[in-house]
Design goal:
Chains A, B: One of its GO terms (cellular component) is cytoplasm. Two copies of one chain form a homodimer. By secondary structure, chain A is α+β, with helices and mostly antiparallel strands. Helix content of chain A is 48%, strand content 16%. Chain A is built from four helices and six strands, in the order ααααββββββ. The N terminus of chain A is likely disordered.
Amino acid sequence: MNNPEHAAADHAATAADVGAGADARPEAPAPTPQARIEDLEDRWRRAMAELDNLRKRHVVELGRAKAAERARVAAAWLPVLDNLELALAHADADPGSILQGVRSIRDQAVQMLATLGFPRDDETGVPFDPSRHEVVAVVDDEETEPNTVVRVVRPGYGESGHELRPAAVTVAGSRE
Amino acid sequence: MNNPEHAAADHAATAADVGAGADARPEAPAPTPQARIEDLEDRWRRAMAELDNLRKRHVVELGRAKAAERARVAAAWLPVLDNLELALAHADADPGSILQGVRSIRDQAVQMLATLGFPRDDETGVPFDPSRHEVVAVVDDEETEPNTVVRVVRPGYGESGHELRPAAVTVAGSRE
């Protein structure tokens, strides 16, 4: 091959380089057509092999990334579980302590979900929003603006576009 | 281009095809060297562009797969959190109910982790295994075989190679 710098720079090469072989440098003789064909066949073969490798590598990487994320999120919950067990252990000695313990654990779990990107949504008094609320009942409430969330039956988690689930709510009906 | 079947079959092409242009088919005239160079330049340019696209696409896919896995695992814990809140709500009416409720929730959380691929490890009486146990104390226990797990201080989760954390244990010391 009378154009060795092409092979050496193969990984950094871009499509813009494709015509470079035709620009005869002062110090290098112009390649013969046959040499140019061999050089291009070589580059094309390498690019196709690299495509094949890249596809295989990404399947492996995807599996690894998912497993790592699964472990990360599962591990984030272990302190919640540990504290549940501590609360149970303490309850034998002091039955009254468990209620306060469980409240703290609930708060810890809610905080954990927010840290993972899924903040709790349990606001009342806000206008009904179909993107974050699921209506389970419409109630008569003379003192409340129609279409306002009166009660959160089950809190939602997550933000618009990244929702784990919507908040299940009751809303005030329209006034007659 | 006097070799149009190459362009059409571009996506299915493999490196083994690279010499096919030289096998003159009865119905097609052999390409001139210049046509062969143009064809190869075109193929190489496409392969490089495809490589570039593939890299970009995989970065996006990786991010999406991680976000989906994060949401899936976080959502798996919502029933645990919901039940904690139910237990708290019932506790106001029946303070004695919370202990049994919290025990069930603990079991639910342990079951959830197992389903995600991280079974609980809290066995005693098994030989110490550095791949799953972390020794927090060595105790004298005349009735137990040396190097046996006597007590699990904090359970481990996960299996060999997919561990969230090892079990923290006390083991029986060697006999004098």
